Every structure is written in C-alpha cells, then in structure tokens.
Amino acid sequence: MSLSAAAALPPLLITPKQLAARIASKQSLCILDATWFLRMPNAPVRNAHAEYLQGPRVPGSLFWDVDAVATTGESVMNLPHMMPSGSMFAEAAAAKGITSDTHVVVYDRHGIFSAPRTAFTFSAFGHRAVSVLDGGLPAWIAAGETLDSRALSADPVPPKASYPVPTLESGRIRSFEEMLHNTTLGSNAQVVVDARPQARFDGTAPEPRPDMASGHIPNSLSLPFSAVLDTHELDGRTYTTMKPQHELWKIVASILGEEGMEKVRHDGSAKGSVGVTFSCGSGMTACILWLALQQLGINGAIYDESWSGWGRRAAKGQAPVEKT
C-alpha cells in the first residue's frame, strides 16, 4: 500500500460527528449494526436482529449477524461466532452491497461491545477501510444525529456487489495448538492478554458457561475489557466509549510493564506483524482490546476460541491452567 493510499484510509475509531459528515457528503459507505447480546442467567433474552428491525437505527444501516457469518460445527467445538471462511465472508459482504473498496462503519447498541469483533473480521481479511463508531448507537443518539425510527418488517436488500474471496492474513487468528506451544516458550513467548473480568481470570469466580475449568492460560496477563472503556448514561441506560489515547497508554503500560510494553511495541508496530494475542470468554470482548491497542499503533491477534475452548479442554485435562 502506498503512503498516499494509507493516508486516505478512514480512522479505525470514528465519532458520530465524523460519520454524520461522511453521510452528509454522500461518501460511499456501508453502515452495519453488528449488535450481539450475551445471554445472562436470570436476565431477559434480547434479540439483536429484532431490535434492529424495530429501530431506531443509524440511517441506512444494515444488520450484520455475527453468529450467522461464522464457522460452525464440530470442527470449532460448536462454539459461537468463530471466524468465517474467506468464501463465507465474501458472500456475506457482497450481499450487503460491500465491495473491497467500500468504507464499512460498524456499530452496536451497547456503545462499544460487539462492533469491534466485526471490524476485526473485516480487518483480518484485509479490508482496510473499516471503522467502529465510538459509543455506537447511544452516542449517535446523544449527539443529536438523525435517526431512522421506522419499524421494518424485513431487512433492506441492497444491490448485491462483487467481493473477491479473501485470504485470512497470517497470524491474525491463533489456534489452540499455537497457544499451547506459546506457553512453553518462556521469555520468547508472545504476550497474551485476557479480557475477561479479573475474578474469572483469577479463577475465584465461576465460568458462566458449563463444563469449563476456571482460571487462565499460563503466563497470560489480565486486562479486563471494561478497563479501556468509559461509561456514560443515556435515558437511564449506560453505554461505553473508548478511553482517550493517553489514558489507554497508561492502562496498558501498567499491565504489561515497561519491558512488556517495549516488546509488544517492537513486535507489533511493523507492517503485518503481530505483537500480542488477545483472549476472552468467546472471542468477542478480546476484540475490544484489539481496538484499544490499535489506537496505540500496536497490532494484535485473537485467540478465536478463547476460554470457551481452552477452559473446556482444561476441564478434561487437555490444557494447563493457572489460578491466582
């Protein structure tokens, strides 16, 4: 990619004001609502697609189902929202009218929660013009931007585009075998950062998913995804935005330490290189940390199956576990 082409790329994190300006100038965009709701015990089940159809929405947005555009079945231990194949991704993008040159803007209804996962998916398949709306739909509403509040009976169907089948970029997704080998490398190991809440990392809180050990991958570090987010309130509900860059730097440096920070900066600042791997419960909130460190110029990979895979294997004695 040329310097001029790189300079023309949109920011990975975009504000409501910036998005509104791009919509007003009629720039070529595809805006995706990639909301995903975690099912919590004793909590009402929320349907992201139904809420998209009911509205409100960012005008012109389409719904991206993160669990539908995903590899499923025994090959991925029946885990949810695992990375799709290149052909599946290309078909889904083309169905939304997306070409390889389209600027894709992703948002969710939490603020920042599930949108980074879809942005990471586009990025890992080499789609550079992708942005996450900082604060998502709530920030858009709080900024007083125009809303589409109509109730829809079905998804809008844009003209189908042509999207070439991409190849997943090397090193962007880590397998269990790679992660297991990494635990044996000592000081040469890649830094692994866990986005789950501290108590789950420590092994003092039970896992919300069944048949799973508690604890963390040996030698990994804890950085709960909530630590990189600011919380706001709108109409009695909270939503999140990404912390400013200078605060992210302090938070990440406090977790990694001076030596660790230098390592991930060195390993993950060159073009195409990856300096750190992120894990979480199911590969969703790990992408929030990916987005945060991208703001610091550090590239990261995702351990796709995350603790849903490692913890299940550990419960069967097939993977080592540490507890704090």
TrEMBL record:
Signal peptide: none annotated. It comes from the Eukaryota. Keywords: Pyruvate, Repeat, Transferase. Its EC number is 2.8.1.2. InterPro entries: Rhodanese-like_dom (IPR001763), Rhodanese-like_dom_sf (IPR036873), TST/MPST-like (IPR045078). The keyword Cell division does not apply. GO terms for cellular component: mitochondrion. Transmembrane segments: none annotated. SMART domains: RHOD. Pfam families: Rhodanese. Residues 25-149, 186-319 form the Rhodanese domain. CDD domains: TST_Repeat_1, TST_Repeat_2. GO terms for molecular function: 3-mercaptopyruvate sulfurtransferase activity; thiosulfate-cyanide sulfurtransferase activity. This is Putative 3-mercaptopyruvate sulfurtransferase. It comes from Malassezia restricta (strain ATCC 96810 / NBRC 103918 / CBS 7877). The gene is tum1.
